[in-house]
Write a structure and sequence with these properties.
The protein has 146 residues and is mainly beta. It contains one helix and six strands.
């Protein structure tokens, strides 16, 4: 009788799903590689979080984005980049902010891609910033101000 109850309890425990916190494995932020030059000095004066929606082959997708007010080569511009650790979209997680050190101040950057704009504006240029913990943050120019 005892063996029967033990076997029955083991079978039932295998059939009943266990509940717990799901582990989400995302990409870890990339680190700056030694020997890569970041010649551009950037001053960040403000930062805010917002949503960014884009259309693609799968339809419309929205996610968290970081918008930054910065000065590069004497030009006041707005930059948009992804919120770090995008493995948990649409959910505020206070633990993610401690891995993101993009506070107002001076940073080093490099130009990744020039959009070859005919009018000479830096809209859609891509930059790569080095944060104090040597994490890389990639962003795109989305606005210019005076």
């Amino acid at each position: 009788m005892r063996k029967f109850l033990v076997v029955l309890s083991l079978l039932l425990s295998a059939l009943v799903p266990t509940y717990g916190q799901k582990t989400r494995f995302g990409e870890t932020p990339t680190k700056a590689k030694p020997g890569v030059d970041y010649p551009i000095k950037v001053h960040i004066s403000g930062m805010h979080l917002g949503q960014f929606c884009s259309t693609g082959s799968e339809g419309v997708g929205c996610g968290d984005a970081v918008y930054v007010d910065a000065v590069i080569d004497g030009k006041k511009i707005e930059l948009r980049g992804s919120w770090p650790l995008d493995s948990v979209p649409y959910q505020w997680d206070k633990d993610r902010i401690k891995h993101f050190y993009l506070l107002p101040g001076d940073f080093q950057a490099r130009l990744l891609k020039d959009a070859n704009s005919l009018d000479g504006t830096p809209i859609y240029w891509n930059y790569e910033f080095v944060l104090p913990d040597r994490t890389i943050w990639r962003c795109t120019v989305t606005g210019i101000s005076e």
